[in-house]
Amino acid sequence: MNFWEYLESRHQQLLTDAYQHASVVFQCMVVATALGVLIGIVTYRSEWAGSLATTLTSALLTVPALAMIGLLIPIVGLGVPPTVIALTLYGLLPVVRNAIVGLRGVDPALVDAATGIGMSRLSRLVRVELPLAWPPILTGIRVSTQMLMGIAAIAAFASGPGLGNLIFRGIASLGSRNALNQVLAGTLGIVVLALLFDAAYVLLGRLTISRGIRA
């Protein structure tokens, strides 16, 4: 059976695995974005706090994915829980770092002007600082998503959802008729999903970033 015949005969399962892969990455990115932006808001005004937040989230990336998931299995079990926790933690660094950089890069004159017209600190943050910091934050989200697409494949080690199951089954059955097809299908599926997500982020940027900021 060649690769195209394999895709045709397994297309329903491949679509299911691809949907699960995209779903878990998307949900983890939503949580990582919310947490990352919140951490950035809390720490960007202080040099040491911002450095601490960046250092701690950087340290998480030094933990191998297999080790992270392996450490979580005795605590939360197999399946979705260790996958979600690991992906969320791995997705924090680019968002936290870019949120801090973006918020610190807002022109102080604009913040002073907002203060001068009577805006509260919360209003300045929501209506002035965050919109101006959004382009670098979105860049951080894009970087995190691309990372998580690959890392999510390793979640199959803990019976997690997604295309990683195809890759692991193929590797475990090397030498069999469809082993290479399984690895190739899983790998190409992840690449296609990563490209689709990135295209969606480009469109989101065009819709949410004003022309003046992009210029």
Automatic annotation (TrEMBL):
Membrane topology field: Multi-pass membrane protein
Listed InterPro entries: ABC_transp_perm/SBD, MetI-like, MetI-like_sf
Coiled coil (residue ranges): none
Xref: CDD domains: TM_PBP2
Main location: membrane
Organism domain of life: Bacteria
Keyword Membrane: yes
Protein name according to UniProt: ABC transporter permease
Organism, scientific name: Streptomyces werraensis
